[in-house]
Amino acid sequence: MENKITGSCYYGKIHFELSNNPKLVVNCHCDDCKKRNGSAFSTYIAVSENDFHLSQGENVIKQFEAENIGIKYFCTECGSPVYNNNFRLPGLSLILYGALTNPAAFKSKFNVFCSTKHTWVDYINNIPSFQETIER
Predict the structure, then answer these.
(1) Structure pTM?
(2) Angstrom distance (rounded) from CA 79 to CA 20
(3) CA 80, chain centre distance (Å)
(4) Domains present along the chain, CATH in parentheses
(5) Is-contact 59 82, C-beta < 8 A?
(6) Residue 135's pLDDT is what?
(7) Cα–chain-centroid distance for residue 14?
(8) CB–CB of 54/99 below 8 Å?
(9) How far is CA 38 from CA 7, 17, 91, in A?
(10) 10-residue mean pLDDT series, the chain (136 residues)
(11) Cβ-count burial of 33 within 10 angstroms (0-12 exposed, 13-18 middle, 19+ buried)?
(12) Looking at residue 68, what is its pLDDT?
């Protein structure tokens, strides 16, 4: 691996690094991800559990077991979700895209659970866009 892949929670209390490149990058449109992450869809970086290493923050990371889905890990200081272990994908850790230091280095390969995808997601590039926030 050429460049070290790192990430953190919003406040920087939790830090992690990956010892290998991701196995895949995926957008998930399931209702569980939308509800738990407060977004129209979630983008995950899938890595082997053995390649994911917490380097800081074990004392502020908390886990929540979502019945029949998996275990969600988040920061108790800022509330940022950091990674998940999905029961359907044993051996993988699913890191939330926004937790990466340089997420733009990775592009999604496919979408899953498109049966519950919001219809407007396909047209997002057709609406007005601004480089920064707009003033009122």
Answers:
(1) 0.86
(2) 27
(3) 10
(4) 5-126 (2.170.150.70)
(5) no
(6) 75
(7) 14
(8) no
(9) 20, 25, 26
(10) 84 96 93 88 95 96 89 95 93 95 93 93 88 81
(11) buried
(12) 81
The answer to whether 13 and 75 have CB atoms below 8 angstroms apart is yes
CA distances from 71 to 24, 35, 36, 44, 120 (A): 19, 15, 12, 14, 30
pLDDT the model gives residue 77: 96
Q: Give, in order, the Cα–Cα distances in Å from 20 to each of 42, 67, 87, 102, 105.
A: 22, 30, 22, 15, 14
Q: Which residue has the tokens 């923050």?
A: 57
The answer to whether the beta carbons of residues 86 and 36 sit under 8 Å apart is no
Report which of 102, 87, 112, 78 is spatially closest to residue 18, judged by C-alpha positions.
Answer: 102
Q: How many residues does the chain have?
A: 136
> CB neighbours (10 Å) of residue 95?
27
